[in-house]
Structure formats: structure tokens, C-alpha cells
Amino acid sequence: MFIAHVDLFNNLLFACLLHMWYAFGRMKPSAQKHTLAVLRVLIGKSQKEMAELVKRSARTIQAIELAQLKLSDELGRQIARATGVNLQWLMAGDIGKPIIDSRGKPYTSKAFDQKQAWINRKLGDYPDDLRWTELSITVFLQVYCGVAISALKTGKFTLFNYKMSKVWDTLAEDFGTGAGVGFTFDMPFPSKDVLDLMPLAVGMVKEVFKTARKEIKSKKA
């Protein structure tokens, strides 16, 4: 009778150990079959944390790493912006090549920490923040105007306007009022009868620069 109880205990213990081995064995580190997995493991993120970083589901990250889902250009760019990893390296999917940063230099977890610190920092922490902000606004306007002119010349401005409206919706949700990006200007918005909108456009640009100078200076105070 005693021996039977011992055998039963041993069988139960073996079953428990087998279950633990199976459960935890399935949680072993990623096989890193995709560059996204290589990046994620290097920066010490779980699939859930990586998903939260780029506002996707953990299932999406898992599917990409298992080659069940192709990494889209949009998500690739978002990951590169959030981590500082080289976009071409990420999209190539060649795990045999060493991971590099946006400048082509070896990528480390420190590079990720620095990128996140830069993204999440408050404007005004550095002396050159105002200059950097004004340059960023200028470059954005240059790109926007350049693409708009190209779209006008090729007869695709309607499509350009449609795609930009999708971008505005996303930006409004992230940074605006939710219903749309809210602007406050010294001048009233013109009625539909006003033909020349150039003064309004110039006024908007001036307002952006004025706001940048006001907000960054107030952070320093």
C-alpha cells in the first residue's frame, strides 16, 4: 500500500515537471527568424511591450516574427522612428547581417534608450531646441509644398489631398482635439467669398513659429 502511494506521488510529480517543462519551454527566447525579433530581443522588450511601443497588437508582432505576416512599410517606418534602428536593415529581413542604426553604425540597446529619451523629452531642455523646432517646421513645409506642387503638375492633387486627410486624422487623434486639429489664430477664418487665401496661409505659418517660440521659452523659465 505504501509503495503504491509512492508510485502515485512519483507519477504526479513527473506529470507536474513535464507540464512545467512544456509550459516554460514554450516561453523560451525567440528563435529570431526575423529582424524584428532580433531588434526586440536586443532592446529587451517582450512582444506585448514592442506592440505597445508602436501601437499594434502583440499578435501582429508575433505573426511578423514567425513570418506569418509581412512587415508593412508603414509599420517598418514606425518601428524605425521609435527605436532608431536602420529602416533598410529592418525591412530587408536578413538576420545574418549585423543590426545597425539609422546612421549605419552598430546598433545597441543604448541607442534605443537615447532614441526614446529624445522622443519623450520636453522641448526647452536643450539650448538648441528652438532652432531645431523651427528647422523641423521649415523642412516639413518644404516637403509638403514640394509634394503638393508635384501632385498639382501631374494632375494627382485630388489623390494627394485624400491621402493627406488620412494623415491629418491620425495626427488630430494623437495631438489635436480628437475631432480635428485645433488651431487658434489672431485673424478670423475667411468666408468662402474671399478669393486670396495666401495671407491666411502666411498667417498660419507665422502662428506656428510664434507658438514654438512662446512655448519653448516658457519651458525654460
Keywords:
221 residues, mainly alpha, 434 Repressor (Amino-terminal Domain), 10 helices, disordered N terminus
Write up what this structure looks like.
With 221 residues, the chain is mainly alpha-helical. The protein folds into two domains: 35-120, 434 Repressor (Amino-terminal Domain) (Orthogonal Bundle); 129-220, no CATH class. 65% of the residues lie in helices and 0% in strands. It has ten helices and no strands. Mean pLDDT is 81; it is low at 1-6 and 16-29.
Write the layout of secondary structure elements.
Layout: H1 2-25, H2 35-42, H3 47-53, H4 58-65, H5 73-83, H6 87-92, H7 109-120, H8 129-153, H9 157-175, H10 198-220
Helix pairs in contact: 3-4, 8-9, 8-10
SS-based structural class?
mainly alpha
Uncertain runs: 1-6, 16-29
End-to-end Cα distance, whole Å, is: 83 Å
Q: If you average the pLDDT, what whole number results?
A: 81
Helix percent band: 55-70%
Beta-strand portion reads under 5%
* Record field, number of beta strands: 0
Shape type: globular
The total domain count is 2
H/E element string? HHHHHHHHHH
Main beta sheet: none
**What is the number of helices?**
10
Q: Radius of gyration in whole Å, from Cα?
A: 26 Å
Provide a compact summary of the structure.
With 221 residues, the chain is an all-alpha fold. It contains ten helices and no strands.
